[in-house]
């Protein structure tokens, strides 16, 4: 079994890791629903471009992952347009960096909603469709911060630990079916989300950009290299393969050795 002919929904996928995963799944023959909260012509052009590159059905579906009902509607809409939902990749995520006593409550709520609660809603909507087909794969994009912590990232670390826990529950509830649930824990991948952290971190530590990259961002990544979005897509594809059929309820770190430290 490969992803060929399967239908995948990737939340938060008009940029960064989600876009890399969407491209990689389409390259391997999957039909893909790309998502973000915007509804710009470029979003639809992006989907059309991937469809043209790989000859599969790729559509853009606007849905704000901070809203539970919208997250559920993304799944049902994708099933209407593409025929089913076989693979659900919960990837949408935002970040905010501040000391916990200065952390804006609104940012806390938004991070928990987008990085954690959206996956609850999409999974709840997708599992009945997967059960109907007798096959499904849930892949949650957690983080090394789902397994370890860093200062100034209370909401993000809480949400990512939360999604690792929820992954285990989904795996147990589907254990006797041909459905698996796993979390990928990337280390640093140079995407717009990471790029946006650099100015704050430069200010926080009083460092220049290169020093922030080497000594702060990649300080805990022994390989001293960013992971790539293609590697994330390849890991998702592996988790959808027959070789991974007995891998469920666990995490796969793609972090250059970070969590080995
Ligand atoms: P990114 O900012 O490039 O992409 C985030 C995506 O989520 C974008 O497509 C954005 O439009 C979408 N998004 C944001 N808010 C949304 C909302 N309310 N509704 C729908 N979509 C929304 O970031 P990225 O680095 O590609 O991060 C993707 C995921 O990978 C996140 O969950 C992040 O926590 C995780 N991650 C990233 C890294 C890294 O180093 N980049 C490391 C570990 C984990």
Short account of what is shown:
With about 260 residues, this protein is α/β, with parallel strands linked by helices.
Can you give keywords for this protein?
261 residues, alpha/beta, globular, binds nicotinamide-adenine-dinucleotide
Report strand %.
5-15%
Shape: globular
Radius of gyration: 18 Å
Low-confidence stretches: none
Biggest sheet, strands in spatial order?
Answer: 3-2-1-4-5-6-7
Number of distinct beta strands: 7
Biggest sheet character: 7 strands, parallel
Instruction: Give the CA-CA distance, first to last residue.
Output: 35 Å
Helical content band = 40-55%
Mean pLDDT: 97
Q: Count the DSSP helices.
A: 8
Order of helices and strands: EHEHEHEHEHEHHHE
Associated small molecules: nicotinamide-adenine-dinucleotide
**Helix/sheet category:** alpha/beta
Description:
The protein has 261 residues and is an alpha/beta fold. Helices cover 47% and strands 14% of the residues. It is built from 8 helices and 7 strands, in the order E-H-E-H-E-H-E-H-E-H-E-H-H-H-E. The chain has helices spanning 16-27, 41-54, 68-82, 105-133, 154-173, 192-205, 209-216, 229-239; strands spanning 7-10, 31-36, 58-62, 87-90, 136-141, 179-186, 251-254. It has a 7-stranded parallel β-sheet with strand order 3-2-1-4-5-6-7, with helices on both faces. Strand 1, helix 1 (16-27) and strand 2 form a beta-alpha-beta unit. Helix 3 runs parallel beside helix 4 (105-133), helix 4 (105-133) runs parallel beside helix 5 and helix 6 (192-205) crosses helix 7. The longest helix is centred in the middle third of the chain and has 29 residues, at 105-133. The radius of gyration is 18 Å and the shape is globular. The model has no long low-confidence stretch (mean pLDDT 97). It binds nicotinamide-adenine-dinucleotide.
């Amino acid at each position: 079994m490969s992803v060929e002919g399967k239908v995948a929904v990737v939340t938060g996928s008009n940029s960064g890791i989600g876009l890399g995963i969407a491209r990689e799944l389409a390259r391997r023959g999957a039909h893909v629903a790309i998502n973000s909260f915007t509804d710009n012509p470029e979003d639809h052009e992006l989907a059309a471009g991937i469809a043209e590159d790989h000859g599969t059905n790729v559509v853009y579906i606007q849905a704000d992952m901070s809203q539970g009902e919208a997250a559920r509607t993304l799944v049902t809409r994708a099933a209407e347009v593409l025929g089913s939902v076989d693979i659900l990749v919960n990837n949408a995520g935002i970040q905010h960096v501040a000391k916990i006593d200065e952390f804006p409550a609104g940012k806390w709520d938004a991070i928990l909603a987008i990085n954690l609660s959206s996956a609850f809603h999409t999974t709840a909507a997708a599992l009945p469709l997967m059960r109907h087909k007798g096959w499904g794969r849930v892949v949650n994009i957690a983080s090394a911060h789902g397994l370890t912590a860093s200062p100034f990232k209370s909401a993000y670390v809480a949400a990512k630990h939360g999604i690792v826990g929820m992954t285990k529950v989904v795996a147990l509830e589907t254990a006797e079916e041909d459905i698996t649930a796993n979390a990928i824990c990337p280390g640093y991948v140079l995407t717009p989300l990471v790029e946006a952290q650099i100015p704050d971190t430069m200010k926080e530590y009083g460092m220049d950009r290169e020093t922030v990259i080497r000594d702060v961002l990649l300080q805990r990544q022994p390989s001293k290299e960013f992971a790539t979005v293609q590697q994330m897509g390849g890991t998702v594809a592996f988790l959808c393969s027959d070789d991974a059929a007995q891998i469920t309820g666990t995490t796969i770190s793609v972090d250059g050795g970070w969590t080995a430290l």
